[in-house]
């Protein structure tokens, strides 16, 4: 922004345009922050589901639930835009509560139709500091009769770094109910292996920035291979996120990565579309030869 400002300052006309743009962006933010507080109550939130492919079995029995906000005037707002705002203004807990309950409701509905999936949910930094979260989740598990093995909570390393003692207590509480735990966006934070060892997690998701353009000789390939090996020696399953290329999936399969998620397998889908997708005979894009 500073560069844009300097640039614009040299040309008065452009400065005005720049300021107008910035004002519009600020106004949008203010509006989103205000409207977020009522989004859940007004029925504007929904979950989309992105399949996770079990690379060994060539099957999909897992998905990540991703929050969507259908704003009545602004249309679909992406979580990349509104989640950070919610985190900074305190409405994240409201959103998380909605996500957790909606996921359980959906699992119960699917269970009634004989559909079994394991869902991953994204949990924010703030949630990890909420000592009451495990108890509330436990109560919801009972209310919706969801098996805890059907849920994985995705956390980020930075979320744990903020207040490790408190976060670890919350994580152990959730784990105590039998919920799975996963480290999201691995490789982008500042975590240490020591930290990872202390966390009661069973899965690690390699950030998509290492995966999207994966090939056999890049630096990314060294990072990805060694992360897979390290995870396995720590007893963790590995998910590669952002798999877009068949060639990338082939490499991941060769390197014994456990799970793949990305546009190559499927984009995130609305609940009904996801259910229909699951019901179809699936031909995975995995190479047949090992
Ligand atoms: P994330 O948890 O790392 O989720 C993966 C994101 O990557 C999703 O974006 C997904 O649509 C996208 N993605 C998946 N495969 C590909 C691919 O092959 N190529 C590309 N380019 N992108 C791919 P989305 O849904 O926009 O979510 C963005 C972020 O917002 C999430 O990143 C997560 O940090 C946050 N988020 C989403 N839903 C929730 C939620 O319910 N609660 C919280 N706290 N955060 C959420
Ligand atoms: Mg995630
Ligand atoms: Mg991620
Ligand atoms: Mg993320």
From TrEMBL:
Residues spanning the signal sequence: none
Domain of life the protein comes from: Bacteria
Entry protein name: Diguanylate cyclase/phosphodiesterase
Domain EAL intervals: 29-282
Organism for this UniProt entry: Ectopseudomonas toyotomiensis
């Amino acid at each position: 922004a500073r560069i844009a400002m300097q640039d614009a300052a040299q040309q008065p006309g452009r400065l005005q345009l720049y300021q107008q743009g910035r004002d519009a962006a600020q106004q949008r933010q203010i509006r989103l922050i205000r409207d977020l507080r009522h989004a859940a109550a007004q029925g504007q939130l929904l979950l989309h589901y992105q399949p996770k492919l079990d690379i060994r079995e060539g099957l999909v029995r897992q998905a990540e639930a991703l929050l969507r906000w259908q704003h009545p005037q602004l249309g679909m707002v992406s979580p990349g835009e509104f989640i950070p705002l919610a985190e900074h203004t305190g409405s994240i807990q409201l959103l998380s509560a909605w996500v957790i309950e909606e996921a359980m409701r959906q699992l119960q509905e699917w269970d009634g139709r004989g559909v079994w999936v394991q869902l991953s949910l994204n949990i924010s930094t703030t949630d990890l500091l909420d000592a009451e979260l495990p108890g509330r989740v436990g109560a919801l598990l009972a209310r919706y009769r969801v098996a805890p093995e059907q849920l994985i909570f995705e956390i980020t390393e930075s979320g744990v770094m903020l207040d490790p003692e408190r976060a670890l207590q919350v994580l152990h509480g959730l784990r105590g109910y039998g919920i799975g735990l996963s480290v999201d966006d691995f490789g982008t934070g500042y975590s240490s292996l020591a930290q990872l060892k202390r966390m009661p997690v069973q899965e690690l998701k390699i950030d998509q920035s290492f995966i999207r353009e994966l090939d056999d000789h890049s630096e990314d390939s060294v990072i990805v291979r060694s992360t897979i090996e390290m995870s396995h020696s720590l007893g963790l399953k590995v998910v590669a996120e952002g798999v877009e290329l068949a060639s990338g999936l082939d490499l991941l399969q060769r390197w014994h990565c456990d799970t793949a998620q990305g546009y190559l397998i499927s984009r995130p889908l609305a609940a009904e579309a996801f259910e229909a997708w699951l019901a179809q005979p699936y031909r995975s894009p995995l190479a047949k030869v090992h």
